[in-house]
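Summary for the lay section of the report: proteins are chains of building blocks that fold into shapes. Here we show the chain for Cadherin-86C and then a coded description of the shape we predicted for it.
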Amino acid sequence: MLPNPWTEEDFDTRNVAVQTILVAVKDAQDTPPVFQSLPPVVRVSDSLPLGGSVFQVHAEDGDFGNQRNITYSFVPESQGVTYFNIHSRTGMITLASSTELFREAYSTTGPFVLSVQATEVESDLVPGLPASSRATLAVVLVNTENKPPRFLSRRYVGSVEENSPGLTPILWEGAEAPRVVDDDQVKNIRAF
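The coded shape description reads as follows.
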């Protein structure tokens, strides 16, 4: 009778082979690009020339290991894309129209909200999984002339009763209260 190989360590009657193997784990390309350091608002000077740089977006492959190439584009239905260009390789956004046209459009619509898309371009992506991601960027026009604010009218007349406490409203004579305008600001500016 042969000894039991499971209980007796001196005799091993099993067929045993030893082989060293190397296992390389490859990260599946299943995570879309991630935008890096993207501010919610970018300010553009009203003196920026045609083709001038507005902002450079940057995204990195969401997967670790071998970083894939990323291309950039505007989402076609994004507001204001006719006034900007984006370089597909570098992500640099530039002014595509004259400052006058841009200022005129801005006075009507207010800030432009651009949707930027970053897409991985390699061929070994996992089918059906996202290979692109989107981010939004608001573009605000800033006047660089810096004119001081001014009253709309040269003269306003108002009254306050004698011995009134602080913060008592002034009673203005005429149809309207004093108004101050800032010629540096766009007429229909919208706040975020």
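Put simply, here is one thing we learned. Residues 33-142 form a domain with the Immunoglobulin-like fold (CATH 2.60.40.60).
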